[in-house]
Amino acid sequence: xxxxxxxxxxxxxxxxxxxxxxxxxxxxxxxxxxxxxxxxxxxxxxxxxxxxxxxxxxxxxxxxxxxxxxxxxxxxxxxxxxxxxxxxxxxxxxxxxxxxxxxxxxxxxxxxxxxxxxxxxxxxxxxxxxxxxxxxxxxxxxxxxxxxxxxxxxxxxxxxxxxxxxxxxxxxxxxxxxxxxxxxxxxxxxxxxxxxxxxxxxxxxxxxxxxxxxxxxxxxxxxxxxxxxxxxxxxxxxxxxxxxxxxxxxxxxxxxxxxxxxxxxxxxxxxxxxxxxxxxxxxxxxxxxxxxx
Amino acid sequence: xxxxxxxxxxxxxxxxxxxxxxxxxxxxxxxxxxxxxxxxxxxxxxxxxxxxxxxxxxxxxxxxxxxxxxxxxxxxxxxxxxxxxxxxxxxxxxxxxxxxxxxxxxxxxxxxxxxxxxxxxxxxxxxxxxxxxxxxxxxxxxxxxxxxxxxxxxxxxxxxxxxxxxxxxxxxxxxxxxxxxxxxxxxxxxxxxxxxxxxxxxxxxxxxxxxxxxxxxxxxxxxxxxxxxxxxxxxxxxxxxxxxxxxxxxxxxxxxxxxxxxxxxxxxxxxxxxxxxxxxxxxxxxxxxxxxxxxxxxxxxxxxxxxxxxxxxxxxxxxxxxxxxxxxxxxxxxxxxxxxxxxxxxxxxxxx
Lengths: 293, 352
Fold this sequence. Notes:
The complex is a heterodimer of chains A (293) and B (352).
Chain A: H1 2-32, H2 39-56, H3 61-84, H4 92-114, E1 119-120, E2 130-133, E3 136-139, H5 140-162, H6 164-174, H7 176-181, H8 186-212, E4 214-215, H9 221-233, H10 239-259, H11 270-282
Antiparallel strand pairs in A: 1-4, 2-3
Chain B: H1 2-5, H2 9-30, H3 34-59, H4 66-81, H5 84-90, H6 97-100, H7 106-128, H8 133-152, H9 155-158, H10 173-192, H11 194-204, H12 206-211, H13 216-242, H14 252-265, H15 270-292, E1 294-296, E2 299-301, H16 307-322, H17 335-351
Antiparallel strand pairs in B: 1-2
Helix pairs in contact in B: 3-10, 3-11, 3-13, 3-14, 3-15, 4-7, 4-8, 4-13, 7-13, 10-11, 11-13, 14-15, 14-16, 15-16
């Protein structure tokens, strides 16, 4: 039982990384139906910005967080302007291909300039060490990450439910043309959604750095697919659903690997795909209600 | 009708075949090294691009999982063509004995690879057939990742991440271009046949096609079958040219390149797929020295790994933004078309 609880608590760290990423992903997915493959590269750029500020420029941790958010927002707006805006409304598949193209270009450009080796990401002093309860260790960094995720979750739900911009987002996700007719500045709302989603990706990049102690140019490739699956799992556009979906994927695959024989540990990626196909066949609308919620 | 005026059909075909054989003979005789590789990769890319055209452009089911199909076909053929000494004695693979002791020729290897790839692809289609649009895309991406993961985690059967080697060098100009030209001919015929038009009808409007009496399930499986058969054959040709096989050999980057070929050539056009394959192959092979780094006039050019992919991505996005229909659109290059093009130009000139 201790083993189970320990595995569960440890996997919450990666779960939070995926959950925050998926929350941002599901917002752009819900509002303009964008399957954004380049979202993983937004996470990567955020983590790299923090790496440069903390490790190379030797600035404190909070400056790294600011740099990560700024870097992610800039790259996300750049991608939106260059790759998505010109082809918006042409068709889902075209958007999908351009996002795949944008993702490939950014990732390989980063590999080209900084190579693909692991780069050390220093986590701040106050996150080192762990608490011990009986035989179970609770790492400070994971506790910190989970607390921040809960805070982000509350803020996002309040934003979507209570604020004017949240109401505008919901109306656009129902029908963009009617929202425009009613005098909502849709262009502006879309930009704001992209900025929120990029901020979340940047924070997720910081989580990744704290958790694994390193960043890499190709780090975004796998989380972005999991974020997509998590947003399908939680219902497209449902922020809370996406966060729960992210936790389900990370915790589920960790627990699966924890109980598999050692030879089959490499099969970890299959878990998310089993979830993906089952949810699409059994309940394509997701576990919770779709549309921005 | 032109066929009444000129030569009759069989003689035309005979002349065409003789010319093609003569060209291939010259290519085989005079090209080697870099240029031969370029020509061979061009041929394989044509096979991959046309196969992808059938599903992605005609039926409109955008698959990015063809890498997984190539992997299935290539491994299936590899189990039979890798020399028994390597399979049995060095790697100690746990295969059935008829596989372990066999080293078969290229024709059965191609057939085994193709059929095995087709079976796998049909398994891919049956669960994914309900998915539409980008759900299908992501599902096929999943197929790609699942195949690579399985190949990597069965060390007793596929030798895991270390991959297989010591392939016999079967692929040559005759095989690659013979299959490529056959596929071009078959797909051009297919496009005009009932089956091909059914595919395109499904791609234009699935529901309307169903109302017209087209059996969606049957034609989708048929399209995937044809496409994956040739894709798997492309995979088999590829490994017998490169002479090694790793689980991540046909990952997303390769699929992405093939997608770029059909997008810049024009979605739905066979001629476009051939042109796109030519452009991307030339691009990739010419830039390959830059990826590894080289000395030029005593100056060291550093290794720029991933340069080709970056430029391919930029090309893809620019085509989608500025000229969405690609080079050919949905048209095909034909002799009548060229004649018409020049005739219209002539009349225009006369009018002026």
